């Protein structure tokens, strides 16, 4: 079997959602920090590439950086980790399938968000600032990216977050449909590359770039930083849950009725993930 059907992926995610909601605080912290660091790796690669391209290349520098950014979600796909933007879709499927309560969903999102942001911020401190990978010649690019993120209006931050997580959720869903390495990589690559090219805001990626920008000498108020994280989180939640999970769930309910896939086979797929 080379790929799963959409309704099979929904069933798989609903079972995963229950498992995710039962993780202990220590596990959530460790896996969340790891995922935050993985996303930061992709963003750091973006900065290092886009920061060295001549200005005459224009938006092509963004395209080059966007080609490298997906490594973060690819790493999470194969190595593991708890990413809040992915959980916004996955746990919504679990809620719709009555595998967990709304309280459990929100609790997981908040805890994983904090762990992701901590991981991304620490990566920015250690590798961006102390190692100097977002300093020196790259400081101007780092600060410029952060300034652009904070310059958006509150409504634009939310809407940008919605667009971002529709694409992130799409990437995770497409990767889950594939049963081979290259299929999963391609499934992640293009949606993530598109969200970066479009300049959409991702709450975990922002935790890294905003931290790196402050440490590189950017002058931003604490309230502006917190407001951005909060509003983009809300936008990401709307995009992952209402923008993708809910319509995909209802679009595939009929096919789920006629599916011949047994719960045991779905559990076997999860075990092989």
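-> sequence recovered:
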């Amino acid at each position: 079997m080379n790929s799963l059907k959409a309704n099979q992926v929904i069933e798989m995610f609903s079972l995963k959602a229950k498992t995710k909601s039962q993780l202990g605080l220590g596990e959530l912290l460790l896996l969340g920090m790891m995922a935050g660091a993985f996303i930061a790796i992709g963003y750091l690669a973006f900065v290092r590439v886009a920061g060295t391209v001549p200005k005459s290349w224009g938006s092509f520098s963004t395209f080059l950086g966007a080609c490298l950014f997906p490594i973060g979600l690819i790493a999470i796909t194969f190595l593991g980790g708890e990413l809040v933007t992915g959980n916004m879709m996955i746990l919504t499927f679990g809620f719709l399938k009555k595998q967990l309560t709304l309280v459990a969903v929100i609790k997981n999102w908040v805890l994983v968000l904090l762990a992701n942001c901590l991981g991304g911020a620490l990566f920015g401190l250690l590798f961006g600032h102390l190692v100097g990978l977002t300093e020196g010649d790259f400081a101007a690019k780092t600060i410029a990216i952060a300034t652009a993120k904070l310059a958006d209006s509150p409504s634009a931050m939310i809407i940008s977050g919605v667009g971002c997580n529709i694409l992130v959720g799409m990437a995770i869903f497409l990767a889950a449909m594939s049963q081979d390495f290259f299929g999963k990589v391609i499934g992640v690559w293009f949606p993530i590359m598109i969200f970066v090219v479009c300049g959409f805001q991702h709450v975990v990626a922002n935790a890294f770039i905003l931290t790196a920008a402050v440490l590189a000498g950017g002058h931003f108020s604490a309230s502006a930083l917190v407001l951005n994280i909060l509003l983009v989180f809300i936008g990401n939640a709307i995009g992952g849950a209402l923008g993708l999970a809910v319509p995909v769930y209802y679009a595939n309910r009929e096919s789920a009725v006629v599916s011949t896939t047994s719960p045991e086979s779905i559990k076997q797929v999860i075990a092989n993930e």
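The longest helix spans residues 222-251.
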